[in-house]
Specification:
This protein is α/β, with parallel strands linked by helices. It is built from eleven helices and 16 strands. The chain has a single domain, classed as TIM Barrel, CATH 3.20.20.80. A hairpin with a 5-residue loop joins strand 5 and strand 6.
Length: 423
């Protein structure tokens, strides 16, 4: 398995201290009898799985003000920026040492045409998934890669399987990663970047069981094999299979219902007998803390009961990971395939007066606790959970950062992520 998903170590005792604190708290509060004697022993001689820094990944979708106003303001904006990208946001994210960013979606990814977002003349389209608003395509491949370079993160690119073709996706990867003077590489150079980009992670579709095409697991599996085979990374620096190559993430389950159990079974059973011509390095899992659908819990003005319900609900992540990890263990006992939780977080009712499709919500101390609970669940399952992406990074759902024109605020969730540094 790739070193980036296996080689991270615990630093400075921070993670051990946090996990031990939660363990002690859980042990003492679970006692039913007041005054009952409780003994706790910790064996520090036994090492567990290494916790991967990629569990602190972020997610940036073309949704609401997540990209435009959140990251991109344009080079002519009065808001301080570098080549159109907000300086304040970049500085804040650099402080978090963000390991990877997933882009361009989400549901948006399965309608995204990458050519609309390159070159001097961008194609203006609509964003039917999220509010039906104009998508100017000002923030495309080059802008995303520039943003990553500014914050020091790796690219997690989600390709269009729902409405695209293997040929289109293959061309996009060649455009980004080819080091030789192919026509697509020359086009990239003409658009301002002569050197090949690095793409650390490739998402092969998004929620293909729902907004990504309403596919059956068997149909998606057929597509997965094709895209895994033909969508290649050509960057000369990312060709070592044992050291530094692009990791391919398959669409996985979206819950614990029978249809998602069947989905994981189908993909992992096929993986067990996969041939040299196709492979995956990860299986995604999407799970939001919602309680009931459509999202009805408020992000502001909530009471004690709602506070408790949300935090109780988020603990379901533990059982969900256990359920799908158990299936994966049957077909992949060596744990070569990571469980990648690339969409998670609190999903509340839209703020009053906002476009419902923008998924705007506030962020409180409750969300900070929710984030910490999930991050520690991921850490406890470090043998299988080696990557995660909170939804989303800026102005959308459980955001790290909220912006309003020239103003920016760091949320309680941001500070939880910062507490895990320098891990």
């Amino acid at each position: 398995m790739h070193r980036r998903l296996l080689s991270m170590t615990r630093s400075g005792g921070i993670m051990r201290t946090i996990l031990l604190t939660f363990l002690i708290y859980a042990t003492f509060t679970s006692s039913a009898k007041a005054g009952e004697k409780i003994e706790l022993s910790v064996d520090t001689s036994k090492t567990g799985a290494k916790i991967d820094r990629n569990i602190f990944g972020q997610f940036a979708e073309h949704l609401g003000h997540g990209i435009y106003d959140g990251i991109w303001v344009g080079p002519d904006s009065t808001i301080p920026n570098t080549r159109g990208i907000r300086n304040d946001v970049v500085a804040a994210l650099r402080e978090l040492k963000v390991p990877n960013v997933r882009w361009p979606g989400g549901c948006f990814a399965d309608e995204y045409q990458w050519r609309n977002g390159i070159g001097p003349h961008r194609v203006v389209t609509l964003n039917p998934n999220w509010g039906g608003v104009i998508e100017p395509n000002k923030f495309g491949t080059h802008e995303f890669m520039d943003f990553l370079d500014q914050i020091g993160a790796q690219a997690y690119v989600s390709i269009n399987v729902g409405s695209g073709t293997p040929h289109e996706a293959a061309d996009w990867l060649e455009y980004m990663t080819a080091g030789q003077a192919t026509t697509l590489a020359q086009e990239r150079a003409a658009n301002g970047h002569s050197e090949p980009y690095r793409v650390g992670f490739l998402g092969i579709g998004n929620e293909s069981w729902d907004c990504g095409g309403n596919m059956t697991p068997e149909y998606y599996l057929d597509q997965l094999k094709i895209y895994s085979r033909f969508v290649r990374n050509f960057n000369p620096a990312e060709q070592d299979l044992d050291k530094d190559h692009m990791l391919k993430i398959a669409v996985g389950p979206g819950g614990g219902e029978p249809r998602f159990i069947d989905w994981t079974e189908t993909i992992m059973k096929a993986y067990e007998h996969h041939t040299w011509s196709w492979n995956i390095d990860g299986l995604s899992l999407h799970s939001y803390t919602v309680v009931k659908w459509p999202p009805a819990f408020k992000s502001v003005g909530f009471g004690e009961a709602e506070y408790a319900q949300i935090l109780k609900s988020t603990l379901d992540m533990e059982n969900l990971i256990h359920t799908h990890s158990s299936i994966m263990d049957k077909y992949d006992p060596q744990k070569k395939v990571a469980l990648v939780i690339d969409e998670w977080g609190a999903w509340y009712a839209p703020l009053a007066g906002t476009n419902a499709g923008f998924l705007a919500q506030q962020n409180s101390l409750r969300d900070a606790i929710l984030a910490a609970l999930n991050l520690n669940i991921f850490a406890r399952h470090a043998d299988r959970v080696r990557m995660a992406n909170i939804a989303q990074m800026i102005n959308v759902l459980q955001a790290m950062i909220l912006t309003d024109k020239e103003k920016m605020v760091l949320t309680p969730s941001y500070y939880v992520f910062k507490m895990y540094l320098p891990f």
